[in-house]
TrEMBL record:
Family to which this protein belongs: Belongs to the protoporphyrinogen/coproporphyrinogen oxidase family. Coproporphyrinogen III oxidase subfamily.
Entry EC number(s): 1.3.3.15
Protein's name in the database: Coproporphyrinogen III oxidase
Coiled coil: none
Gene designation per UniProt: hemG
Length: 482
């Protein structure tokens, strides 16, 4: 419900899910809101494409259902009854030349059930024999942040890192385990590990404390998760807000009364004044906007790297698959992690029509498949033409599933600089950004660059940013009317 603030104007820079979620909170509290998105469309990394008549997400395809923020937003939009869950969440890893089921009891690749790990045959005999040493090894010294590879490798061996943790984390961050922060990318495991000498014991304790029946892990919308930003934008405009696309913010400067934003080309600039601003843009443009008035935050943001990737979506006749692997798909380790299975270009395959039963078109007999390509530092791979990327995806499916037919339709979606890298020291970097921003009245930041890449995490950061702005506007109103 709207309260006051009708004369206050807040601008949100960035029309991804974080920016839209922040704008919605502000608009519903009575603030006059303007969302400025530089690209021709809203949604950020959420986008739906049509492949042979099947609506398939070309970016994020689901959100965590066990974290409340995303589910709460869908409920508040009156669409909770529309949510759908996967038909299966079982998946495999291509390890040692074969598809092997991801072992039960693991948390982002860190094992807790040694019997299940052995049965999966993901690890070599030598790698498997190394794992239980974690139970007897002395505590691994850990002061500040460390890399995923260093800590987990020291506890359970490098093969667990390479053939389980790396593929699973690669699907989220497209990053390098030697660089990724243990604390920032695996916060629950890292926190549990601080209370145990053994990493396996820490994961066992964490799993034992988790709810036994927490419901489905993932959820999406029937026409694709890429429809969510448009639902949020419609709610913003219904509350009196404005959502603009093709409006690139070139400069942000403090004024005696708030902030001034410069929009558009230098030859024909547009100026927009605001009482408060939420920057929900990626780290690099956020850094440029803060360079003059919040240089300490700008410096830290400039140090956040991003990985590029591409999604290749293919539609095949169901009869094209002589052997369709069980489960929703599989992950592929990098060549450094598993020379026998890695180096094939594709890092993940999702059989969308299997994972999401609502996508099945039995009358047409089609299967939609998503192939993900690209890791941090592999930008040269993505410089290939669309046709070459499609050929790489086709070769992967031929090798694993025996597919020899051409797809009925294909689509390549490129996400240049799409995934922020939470490298060692990330949490400290984010703390410095927020500390610097806190000193600037009426300014807040939100988005995937800070506390998590998933949709619920982005929405949580948006709510925190909107709350900060509302607190500022209320305090200012109190002064003006005191």
């Amino acid at each position: 419900m709207a309260t006051s603030h009708a004369t206050s104007h807040a601008v949100v820079v960035g029309g991804g899910i974080a920016g839209l979620a922040a704008a919605r909170v502000l608009a519903r509290d009575g603030v006059r809101v303007t969302v400025l998105e530089g690209s021709p469309r809203i949604g950020g990394k959420l986008q739906v494409g049509d492949i042979a008549g099947i609506p398939v997400d070309e970016g994020a395809e689901s959100m965590l259902a066990r974290r409340p923020e995303g589910m709460d937003l869908v409920r508040d939009l009156g669409r909770s009854d529309d949510l759908v869950n996967p038909g299966t969440t079982s998946s495999a890893i291509l390890s040692r030349g074969a598809l092997r089921t991801i072992p039960a009891g693991q948390v982002m690749g860190v094992p807790s059930d040694l019997k299940a790990l052995a049965g999966s045959q993901v690890l070599s005999p030598a790698g498997l024999a190394r794992v239980p040493l974690d139970l007897v090894l002395p505590e691994t010294p850990r002061g500040g942040d460390v890399s995923v590879a260093d800590f987990i490798g020291a506890r359970v061996g490098r093969e667990v890192v390479d053939r389980l943790v790396e593929p699973l984390l690669g699907g989220v961050y497209a990053g390098r385990v030697e660089l990724l922060s243990f604390d920032a990318t695996l916060p629950a495991v890292a926190a549990a590990a601080r209370g145990h000498r053994s990493l396996i014991s820490a994961v066992r304790g964490s799993r034992a404390a988790a709810p036994k029946d927490a419901g489905p892990v993932f959820a999406t919308l029937p026409d694709g998760l890429g429809t969510l930003p448009h639902l949020v934008a419609a709610d913003i405009t219904a509350a009196g807000g404005t959502v603009r696309t093709g409006a690139t913010v070139r400069e942000l400067r403090r004024t005696p009364d708030g902030w001034r934003l410069t929009i558009g080309p230098t030859r024909d600039p547009e100026y927009l004044d605001a009482d408060a601003v939420v920057i929900a843009a990626p780290a690099a443009p956020a850094s440029r906007l803060l360079a003059e008035d919040v240089p300490a935050a700008a410096r830290e943001l400039a140090g956040i790297d991003y990985a590029s990737m591409a999604i290749i979506t293919l539609a095949y006749r169901a009869t094209a698959f002589p052997r369709l692997p069980k489960g929703s798909g599989y992950l592929v380790p990098g060549v450094e992690s598993d020379p026998e299975s890695g180096g094939r270009g594709v890092k993940a395959v999702t059989f969308s029509s299997v994972k999401w039963p609502h996508l099945r078109r039995r009358d047409r007999g089609l299967i939609a498949v998503r192939c993900s390509i690209g890791r941090f530092g592999e930008e040269r791979t993505l410089q290939k033409a669309d046709e070459e990327l499609v050929a790489t995806a086709m070769a992967e499916l031929a090798a694993t599933c025996g597919v020899t037919e051409l797809p009925a339709e294909s689509r390549v979606t490129r996400w240049g600089g799409g995934l922020p890298q939470y490298n060692v020291g990330h949490a400290d970097r984010v703390a410095k950004v927020r500390s610097a921003v806190a000193a600037a009245p009426g300014l807040a930041v939100a988005g995937a660059a800070y506390d998590g890449l998933g949709i619920p995490a982005c929405i949580a950061s948006a709510r925190a940013a909107a709350t900060r702005v509302l607190d500022h506007l209320r305090s200012r109103e109190g002064v003006e009317h005191g």
